[in-house]
Amino acid sequence: MPVLDNYKPDAHLLKDRVVLITGAYGGLGRALSHACAQLGATVILLGRSLPHLEKLYDELEQAGSAQPGIVPLDLEGASAKDYDDLLLTIEKEFGQLNALIHCAGILGSPSPLQAYDMAEWNKVMATNLQGPILLTQALMPLLDKSKAASIVFTLDDHNTAYWGAYGVSKAALRAAAQILADETENLVDEQEQPRVAVNLVNPGPMRTKLRAKAFPGELPTEVPEPESKVNTYIQLIARTDPKLTAADIKL
Question: What is the rounded distance in angstroms from the CA atom of residue 56 to the CA atom of residue 34?
Answer without folding.
Answer: 9
